[in-house]
Amino acid sequence: MKIRFKKLLKALELNENPVFSDGKLHKLLVDPAKKSWLFELEFPAPLEIKDFEELMNNINQIPSKFKEVKSTHVQITYDTPNFDLLPEYYDFVLQQLIQHRPRFSAMSDFEIEHSDNRLQVVCPKDGQFVTKMLKMVKKELQLIGFDVVLATRICDQQPSIKDKIDQQGDNFTNKISKNTYAKRFEKKFVSYSKKRLRGEMAAVDTVPKTENDLSEYKSMNNDATFQVEGVITKIDSIDIRNNTTLYTFIISSDNDSVYVKKFSKQQSEKNFFNDTLVGMIARVKGTASYDNFSKEVTITAYQFERTTMVKPTDIRKDTADKKRVELHLHTKMSTLDGINNIDEYVETAMKWGHDAIAVTDHG
User: Fold this and answer.
1) How far, CA to CA in Å, does 154 sit from each of 110, 115, 128, 215?
2) Of all helices (H) and strands (E), which one includes residue 112?
3) Could you point out which of 83, 111, 130, 211 has its C-alpha 20 to 30 Å from the C-alpha of 155?
4) pTM score, two decimals?
5) Whether 83 contacts 148, CB under 8 Å
6) How many CB atoms lie within 10 A of CB 192?
7) Pairing state between β 149-154 and 71-78
8) SS in 3 state form for 277-307?
9) Cα 121 to Cα 357: distance, rounded to the nearest angstrom
């Protein structure tokens, strides 16, 4: 079985990665009518999620290499059941389902509670529909080796889905209108992996500043894990041993900043960080420690998300309860009297919440 698995790894171009060396290929079931291949695999224990994603990505690329294959599937078992990585595999399955069934995206914002092989999704009072959707999630998890108990817990303190829709209705309408004129900045986060950060983001200034502050924080909380959000104000990178690149970021809020480190080995992950720009908003989860070199408390990130766009630097706002309507406006169509085009004026007016503007070009 190991010989067959080694041949599979070579075909998948994964034979040089030692994390897969203990795997086995029990069967390869071929359905000629559907042109599908089912791989029955076995591993000693669940792989780290990044390695599992790499394996799945390469298996999913088989149809592009062989015309006789239309689809690929896997069924995985483990010698020793281990549920430490269950939340990460849950996120992976959820993201896969979202690609084909967008309604599952409603679950991505709900927090989860994990204990051994049991995972609860914390839902608002009108989130009962999640129970039915979890049946599909459980089925997919079983196929990749996780026999788990999935349940929901209704939390009355959470705002209902209906309330969220009502609150965001006007914002959604404005967003659609704005996109008619110009592409707007969206606070949409992406990450290299399928993992998502859940829960509230702490303020940057909650991270201890000195070595003593950090020691005191650890003694009081028995942990030094932080989940923060801020604007990226500086990026550095350096290649170190074993084909690893160390990325260093400064994440800033309005009143404080923190150093964030991220070690990266895979080239695709490096490409993600190489495309990261100053001015993007980042969400980071990691462990804080005191760096003797920089003499700063630094977060070593194991989860990193960022926006796809740079946050605009124009921070002007119209905070008046009753908005004005500008009745005298010249665009660049008024020679020597205006420098902006109408799209820019409309975009600004909508951003400030103005209902209308009057263009009074001359000539």
Assistant:
1) 11, 17, 8, 37
2) strand 112-115
3) 83
4) 0.51
5) yes
6) 20
7) unpaired
8) CCCCEEEEEEEEEEECCCCEEEEEEEEEEEE
9) 47
Instruction: Give per-residue pLDDT as tens, 13-29.
Output: 888 788 898 899 999 99
Q: Which residues of 260-272 are buried (b: 16+ CB within 10 A; e: fewer)?
A: bbbebeeeebbeb
Helices then strands, counting H and E runs in the chain, come out as 9, 14
C-alpha to C-alpha distance for 237 and 273, rounded to whole angstroms: 9
Q: What number of other Cβ atoms are within 10 A of residue 182's Cβ?
A: 13
Helical pair 86-100 and 49-60, crossing angle rounded to 10 deg: 30
pLDDT, one tens digit per residue, over 46-61 is 999 888 988 998 898 8
282-314 per-residue burial string, b: 16 or more CB within 10 A, e: under 16: bbbbbebebeeeeeebbbebebbbbbebeeeee
At 194, the amino acid letter reads K
How many CA atoms are closer than 13 Å to the CA of 5, on its beta-carbon side?
Answer: 18
**How would DSSP label each residue in 13-49?**
T-TT-GGGTT-EEEEEEEETTTTEEEEEEEESSPPPH
Tens-digit pLDDT profile for residues 199-230:
788 889 899 989 999 999 998 888 889 999 99
Secondary structure class of 162 (helix, strand, coil): helix
Rama region for 289: left / alpha / beta (φ>0; ψ in -120 to 50; rest): beta
Backbone angles phi, psi at 28, to 5 degrees: -125, 105
Q: Please report which residue ranges of the chain form alpha helices under DSSP H.
A: 2-11, 49-60, 62-65, 86-100, 129-143, 161-181, 211-221, 267-274, 342-351
Residue 177 reports pLDDT greater than 70: no
